[in-house]
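Need tokens for this chain, all 225 residues.
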Amino acid sequence: MSNRIISWGNAQADGHSEEQTIVGINNFVKRQTATSRFSHFSGSDDELLTRVQQAWEQAKPGYRTGVLLVPVEPSGFFSGVVKLQEGDALSGTYEARREGENPRKAVVAEGREKMAAATVDVVLYNSQVLAEDEDNELPAEHTNWEVVSINASPDLYEMPIEPNVLMHNHFGSSGGTRTNLTDEDFVSMLRRSFRYWSDKALAGCNCAPSGVTVMTSNNEQGESK
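Here are the structure tokens for all 225 residues:
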């Protein structure tokens, strides 16, 4: 495992860090490459962690305790999310996201390419949360955080979690992380998610965006837990 780990000497986001907060790159995010259907970053792991460090004070709470969204500067990020047009051809796969998980359905828009991102949230899970399913790669301590997803949007507003990911998490699917939401809060979040994603899909081109060079170093980039 080639994690890049950084630490800070001072707390930088109230309620989210302490002295020597450590942030690492979880291997789950490394599926988000230029040739995948997922959003990706064209820089290195170290550059991604630098963006996270620079924006740490703007960190926002995620859908549950132990999940953070860090809004970073979007240059160099590409969004796998495309807005559908009537007549677009869709195709699907049924595959596990990684070894050891049960397969899931996924739908893509055929022939559509990724776009430069307008906004980006880097999703971090606390290592203690990841340890609930033995997915942590740093020690399960409250000072440790791991980058698990790059949520890059083509829009200038926050992108809600994809409905199927939310349901897999909430209902305890293999590889999902428990939401701990009440039924009322879950339905409210699902309603917002459904409205946004009803005319969206992931790009199905399986190619790098036009004019983007695919990096082949050991600093692969890596979408949502």
